[in-house]
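hey can u run this one w/ zinc ion bound, need the structure tokens asap thx
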Amino acid sequence: MDTRKLITIAGRANRTIDSALQAFLEELNALVARASARTLARLQRKLELGADDRLQGTAGNAATLRLAGRIFQSEMERAGYPELVDAFVGSFGRLFPFFEETLEALGLEAVKFSREDREALAGQQANLAEAIRGVVRSVAEAAKRRAAFSVGGTPIAELTELLAVEYGKTAAQAGGLADTAITTFYRAIQDRGFQRIEEANGAAVRYRYYGPDDVLTRPFCDELLERTARRGLTRAEIDRLDNGQLPNVFLTGGGYRCRHTWVLDTRAEEQPQAWPSEFPGGFAVVGEIDVPAGVLEAFGVEPQARELALTEERSGHIMSDRHRELQTLGSFVLEAAMRPDEVYRNRKDPQVGIFLKRMSDRRWMRVVVRWRQPGEDASYRSSILSARVGKEQERAVSRRVWVR
Ligand SMILES: [Zn+2]
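ok here u go:
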């Protein structure tokens, strides 16, 4: 599985989402400003003011203030809000190709969406559009409530200021909802597609959490990125998660404005290699070190040095009580020794390489491998000397030989 490719696709999907949102927000802001100005003008024409530009406490004014919500709603419609929302939601279809690319990067066949799938997604699109349109109704309601407290004697400037602030909330609220809606829809495409794969497999598959990993990442997402870095979660496990904001973590991720998505974890289908239990002659051959030839050259060793062994004595050392944290991570130690993400030199011993494989954002599996030296007996192999879990800041970049 090409992790970097998946991250690139996720990045491009996110940029498409961002630009769709940006366009929506720009038009939305202009539209709200227009509708707000027209509403205020209509209200002012109807209101009876005293000589000092204050509201008069008449029954007619009270009735006009009750319209502060309804007029705004009709002006938003006239300004083209429903069409803007439809166009925005209609553009969600542009996200399908990213899902197709994701499947390709995962080495999976394209998914044929059934008519039922398409209808279900269209239904969800309609619901999301409805929710975004509904923002105007709730803003209008809130404006009407505020206006109800403006009684006789309120300066008209104060009233229009107050209403303009209320109407202006449409942009922020609809924008936030639009943001959540488009990412939710992208996850819904993935959800449907991966479910088809799950059915075809006839077995529970696992999912890995993908997306930005920076200071803005909330703890819920941060923890999931870390938790799924080594092994994905099943749908049942994901369904038990709670982001504290929105239901259905598969579709809503970390909640409002979250940019993370679930991607099928194809690693789960590869059987992890078990830690050797038998050491005939004192050692076990575990496999081959999969790094480019340039890495071997950098250490001055021959192609035979790829063959990797583990001695009974070192196995005992690595799995000793002192290294308790490794007792359940045997397969990952082997994985790091054979398919490291990065290779370093040791400060003192030129015969050993330090192999790192990422476990999470902050932790690395760190395996010390002694290379088979040129001219050594033909029966000798490279071998694992020790292993432990290391922290991010321990990576000595100056001694780095290779990065995957
Ligand atoms: Zn997130």
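Strands lie at 206-210, 233-234, 261-264, 283-288, 307-311, 342-345, 352-358, 363-370, 382-391, 400-403. anyway lmk if its weird
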